[in-house]
Design brief:
With 558 residues, the chain is α/β, with parallel strands linked by helices. The chain folds into three domains: 303 residues, P-loop containing nucleotide triphosphate hydrolases (Rossmann fold); 102 residues, 2-Layer Sandwich (Domain 2, N(10)-formyltetrahydrofolate synthetase); 83 residues, Formyltetrahydrofolate synthetase, domain 3 (Roll), CATH 3.10.410.10. Strands 1, 2, 3, 4, 5, 6, 14, 15, 16, 17, 18 and 19 form a twelve-stranded mixed sheet that branches. A hairpin with a 5-residue loop joins strand 24 and strand 25. The longest helix has 21 residues. The chain is globular.
Length: 558
C-alpha cells in the first residue's frame, strides 16, 4: 500500500478560517490578529482577561531517547488532541515553532505527521509569523549596542575580555561558533573573540517562553547579564539601555499563534527552544492561555524525557506554577529494536528479542517520570512493519513497571486511531491522582542540583567539573542566583554524554564543560560533553532537496 507523504496530506487539508477555530475556544474575532486566512495571533488584552478563570487539565507528551528509527512525539501530541476532541472533550494543543536550522539540516519539520498534523505545515516550518526573526533581531540589537557602548568610550568600564553576550542566527552554521569581530582598523571598533549560537539557544528565546506578559518580558530582558567589569561585577542589559527597544521588537512575538489540526481543532504554536541546549518547551503564555480556554491541554517537551520532560517539570512548571495531570511517554517498536542492537536497515524484520532487549531505555524513562509524582501512560506509535508479537512484548514490559502501554494509529487514521489512548488519558487526568513535585528544592545549591539531575535522571555515578566551574557556581550563589533551576545542555541520543550509548547505561560520569548564567530567563545553563549551542549541517543537508516545483509549491520539506 502506497502512503501519501506528510506534505501531500497537509496540502489536501480542508482548513477552516482561523476565526472559526478561535470561536471554538471562545476567542472573539476582534482579538485575533490574522496572518492570512489560516493563522493568527491572540491579543494580549484577551489573554489578560482570562486570568481569573479555572485551569483545565495539563497533559504532557514526551518520549524515549530519539533514534534514527523515529518516535513521533509531535505526531502523538496532535493525534491525542484530536482524539480527545473526537470523544467529546474540549481540548487544545500547545507545541513549539520550528527552527530553520534543523529544517534545512537533517531533522525536518515540527508539525506532526500523517493524519495527525498541524497546518499550514509549510509556513509553520519556515518563516511562520516571524517570531524567530524578531527574537534574532532583538538579541543582535543588544550585541550591537554592547560593542557600540565600548566604541564610544566604554563609560560602564566593560572588560572586553569578559563580554559574555554572543550573537545568534536561526541556521546551522559551524563556521560561526568561534569568530573574531571588529577587525579592520580603528573605525570598526575593538577586536575581540566571540561567536554565534543558534537562535533557539538564545536567552531571549527562553525569556519569551517564560515571561508572563510584556511587562515581565521587559524586566527579564533588563536582567540579562551581558558582560563583567575588571572587578567581575556584572553589566546588565538595562545598563546598556537596550531592554526597551528589545521589548518593542518582541511586542508581537509575545502573542501566541493560533492554527489548526487537520481535523480543525485549535493548536497554539509559540516559542521554540531546543531541549538539548535550552529548556525545550513552548511558551508559558500559550500554555496558560490554553488552560483557561480548554478542559484538556496537550503539550510536548522536546527530545527524550531525560531532557524535555525534566526541564518541563523543573523549570517551566516551577516558574509558571503548573502541574501536569498525566504524562504520555511515546515509544515505537522500531526504536526499541534499535536500542536492542538492530541496525536501521534491519528494522523491518520481526525481532521480539531485540524489542525486549531495548525496553530498558523505556523503563528508565517511566521510572524517572514517576519520580515527579505523575502517572505515566506509554503510547506505542504504530508503524506498518510492527507485528503483534513485538507490540505485546512492549505491553508486557511496561506492565512490569506499573504502567500501561496502548497501541496508537493516529499517523494512519487520525483521531480514529487513538480513541483508546484518549479515553484512558482523560480518565487518569480526571482522577486527580497526580501529586506533582519538582525533583529538587529551590534552596539546594547549584552543584547539588546538577548532581541530582545527573544521578537521578541520567543514573550517572558522578559529575566531573573543574574547580573553575565549581568556583563560578559559588560566585553566582554569592550574588543571589543560588535558587535558580538548572538547564542541562546534553546530547539527546543517550542518558550519557556519549550519543552512541543507547539503552539504559550505568557506571558513567557527566563531564561539565561550561556553565552560563541566564539571569533574565532565570536558570543556569550547564553544557555537558561535546554538545554544541551552534549546530553544523550534515554531510548531505536537507536544503539540497528543498525547492519550488512547477506549480510553485514547496518540495522536499519531508
Amino acid at each position: 500500500m502506497a502512503y501519501k507523504s506528510d506534505i501531500e496530506i497537509a496540502r489536501e487539508a480542508n482548513k477552516q478560517p482561523i476565526q472559526a477555530i478561535g470561536a471554538k475556544l471562545g476567542i472573539p474575532s476582534e482579538h485575533l490578529l490574522p496572518y492570512g486566512h489560516d493563522k493568527a495571533k491572540v491579543s494580549a488584552e484577551f489573554i489578560k482577561a482570562q486570568r481569573g478563570k479555572k485551569n483545565g487539565k495539563l497533559i504532557l507528551v514526551t518520549a524515549i531517547n530519539p533514534t534514527p528509527a523515529g518516535e513521533g512525539k509531535t505526531t502523538t501530541t496532535v493525534g491525542l488532541g484530536d482524539g480527545l476532541n473526537a470523544i467529546g472533550k474540549k481540548a487544545a494543543i500547545c507545541i513549539r515553532e520550528a527552527s530553520l536550522g534543523p529544517c534545512f539540516g537533517m531533522k525536518g519539520g515540527a508539525a506532526g505527521g500523517g493524519y495527525a498534523q498541524v497546518v499550514p505545515m509549510e509556513e509553520m516550518n519556515l518563516h511562520f509569523t516571524g517570531d524567530f526573526h524578531a527574537i534574532t533581531s532583538a538579541h543582535n540589537l543588544l550585541s550591537a549596542m554592547i560593542d557600540n557602548h565600548i566604541y564610544w568610550g566604554n563609560g560602564l568600564e566593560i572588560d572586553e575580555r569578559r563580554v559574555v553576550w554572543r550573537r545568534v542566527l536561526d541556521m546551522n552554521d559551524r563556521a560561526l561558533r568561534d569568530v573574531v569581530t571588529s577587525l579592520g582598523g580603528v573605525s570598526n571598533g575593538f577586536p575581540r573573540q566571540t561567536g554565534f549560537d543558534i537562535t533557539v539557544a538564545s536567552e531571549v528565546m527562553a525569556i519569551l517562553c517564560l515571561a508572563l506578559d510584556l511587562k515581565d518580558l521587559e524586566k527579564r530582558l533588563g536582567d540579562i547579564i551581558v558582560a563583567y567589569r575588571r572587578d567581575k561585577t556584572p553589566i546588565y542589559c538595562r545598563d546598556i539601555k537596550a531592554d526597551g527597544a528589545m521589548a518593542v521588537l518582541l511586542k508581537d512575538a509575545m502573542q501566541p499563534n493560533l492554527v489548526q489540526t487537520l481535523e480543525n481543532n485549535p493548536a497554539f504554536v509559540h516559542g521554540g527552544p531546543f531541549a538539548n541546549i535550552a529548556h525545550g518547551c513552548n511558551s508559558v503564555v500559550a500554555t496558560t492561555t490554553a488552560l483557561k480556554l480548554a478542559d484538556y491541554v496537550v503539550t510536548e517537551a522536546g527530545f527524550g524525557a531525560d531532557l524535555g520532560a525534566e526541564k518541563f517539570m523543573n523549570i517551566k512548571c516551577r516558574k509558571a506554577g503548573l502541574a501536569p495531570s498525566v504524562v504520555v511517554l511515546v515509544a515505537t517498536v522500531r526504536a526499541m529494536k534499535m536500542n536492542g542492537g538492530v541496525a536501521k536497515a534491519d528494522l523491518g524484520a520481526e525481532n521480539v528479542a531485540a524489542v525486549t532487549a531495548g525496553c530498558p531505555n523505556l523503563g528508565r524513562h517511566i521510572g524517572n517520570l514517576k519520580s515527579f509524582g505523575v502517572p505515566v501512560v506509554v503510547a506505542i506509535n504504530h508503524f506498518v512493519s510492527d507485528t503483534d508479537a513485538e507490540v505485546d512484548a512492549i505491553k508486557k514490559y511496561v506492565a512490569t513497571h506499573g504502567s500501561e502501554a496502548i497501541l496508537c494509529k493516529h499517523w494512519e487514521k487520525g483521531s480514529a486511531g487513538v480513541t483508546e489512548l484518549s479515553t484512558r488519558v482523560a480518565e487518569i487526568a480526571d482522577s486527580g491522582i497526580a501529586n506533582f513535585a519538582p525533583l529538587y528544592p529551590d534552596e539546594m545549591n547549584l552543584f547539588e542540583k546538577i548532581e541530582t539531575i545527573a544521578k537521578r535522571i541520567y543514573h550517572a555515578d558522578d559529575v566531573l567539573a573543574d574547580k573553575s566551574i565549581r568556583d563560578q557556581l559559588k560566585a553566582w550563589e554569592a550574588q543571589g542566583y543560588g535558587t535558580l533551576p538548572i538547564c542541562m545542555a546534553k546530547t539527546q541520543y543517550s542518558f550519557t554524554t556519549d550519543p552512541n550509548r543507547r539503552g539504559a547505561p550505568t557506571g558513567h560520569s557527566v563531564p561539565v564543560r561550561e556553565v552560563r548564567l541566564s539571569a533574565g530567563a532565570g536558570f543556569v545553563v550547564v553544557i555537558c560533553g561535546e554538545i554544541m549551542t551552534m549546530p553544523g549541517l550534515p554531510r548531505v543537508p536537507s536544503a539540497e532537496s528543498i525547492m519550488l516545483n512547477d506549480q510553485g509549491q514547496i518540495e522536499g520539506l519531508f
